[in-house]
Each structure stands twice: as C-alpha cells, then as structure tokens.
Amino acid sequence: MLNFAWAVLAGFTLGTPAVPLGLSISLAPPVALIAVLLGAAGCLLSAVFAAGRLRTRWLIRRARRRPDTAAPPAGNRRNRLDGPAGRRARRVVDRYGVIGFGIIGPALFGTWGSALLGTALGLPRWPLIGWLMAGVTLWCTVMLLASEALIDALGLR
C-alpha cells in the first residue's frame, strides 16, 4: 500500500516519467500505471484550476488598469507567451486544437507544463483536462511498455 502511495505521489510530481519508478518499487505493471494516472489526474486538476483562477484574476486586473483592452499594448511590452515554449504551444494549438494539444502536450511540455500552458493559452477547461488525461494515459502506456521491454531485454526480473 505504501508503494502505491509513493507511485501516486511520483505521478503527481513527475507525470509520465513516474511509470518506471512505479515498476522499480515492485508494483505490478497495471497497478503502477493506475497509480501514476491517479497522481497525474491530481496534478492536472490542481494545475488547471489554480492557473485558471490566476489567469482570471490577472485578466480582471489588466482590464481595470487598461480599460481599452481592444487597443494594442503600448511600447515594447512582450507577452509572456512569446518565449520558445509559448510559441511552440501556440503552434500546436493553432495547428491541432485542444485535442492535438492534449495528446501531444504531455510529451512536449510534461504534465505540469502542458496543463499550465493550456490554461495560459485560454483553452476551455474541461476539454483541456479530458484531452490531457487522454494524452497522459497514452504516454504512460507507451512508457510502461517501453520500460517492460527494457526490463525483459536486460533480464532484470
């Protein structure tokens, strides 16, 4: 039971890369997968709701400071999503939408990063959570199969 709790905690903090950790602490592969997915679900929910709340507060504060939000920002003020990760995320969203971002995001940005970036980009909350969970499930399953194949190839069991 304690190993399961450790795998859930690792899934919360690490996301997909926690699958080999779950296997290394002697959990059966399906149990390790379920534990990591539970932890990743907690990560996604907390990140999306916390970032959504912060984004809403920021937009309200911004609207109060600058009543004319239709006007472009003055001077050379940069958008915080103009960095390399923000541009990459924007390209994925523009090209594939919420579904593509949810499936590709955990592989490109990690669990926390994709949840925070998706919320910062203004993607709808529940579709984002659903598709990110689908992506995390896909990548955790891929990681599980790869880890199992490597363990068998090296003869570690």
Describe the structure.
- The structure is a single chain.
- The protein is an all-alpha fold.
- Helices cover 79% and strands 0% of the residues.
- It is built from 5 helices and no strands.
- It has helices spanning 2-14, 18-24, 29-65, 84-120, 125-154.
- Helix 1 (2-14) packs parallel to helix 3, helix 2 packs antiparallel against helix 3 (29-65) and helix 3 packs antiparallel against helix 5.
- It is elongated and about 65 Å long.
Essential attributes:
79% helix; 5 helices; 157 residues; mainly alpha; 0% strand
Task: Describe the secondary structure blueprint for this structure.
Layout: H1 2-14, H2 18-24, H3 29-65, H4 84-120, H5 125-154
Helix pairs in contact: 1-2, 1-3, 2-3, 2-5, 3-4, 3-5, 4-5
Low-confidence stretches: none
Helix tally? 5
Overall 3D shape: elongated
Total count of strands: 0
Measure the end-to-end span. Answer: 21 Å
Structural class: mainly alpha
The whole-number mean of residue pLDDT values reads 88
Q: What is the CA-atom radius of gyration, in angstroms?
A: 19 Å
Q: Can you summarize the main beta sheet?
A: none
Beta-strand residue percentage: under 5%
Question: Topology as H/E string?
Answer: HHHHH
Helicity, in percent? over 70%
What's the short story on this structure?
The protein has 157 residues and is mainly α. It has helices at 2-14, 18-24, 29-65, 84-120, 125-154. The protein is elongated and about 65 Å long.
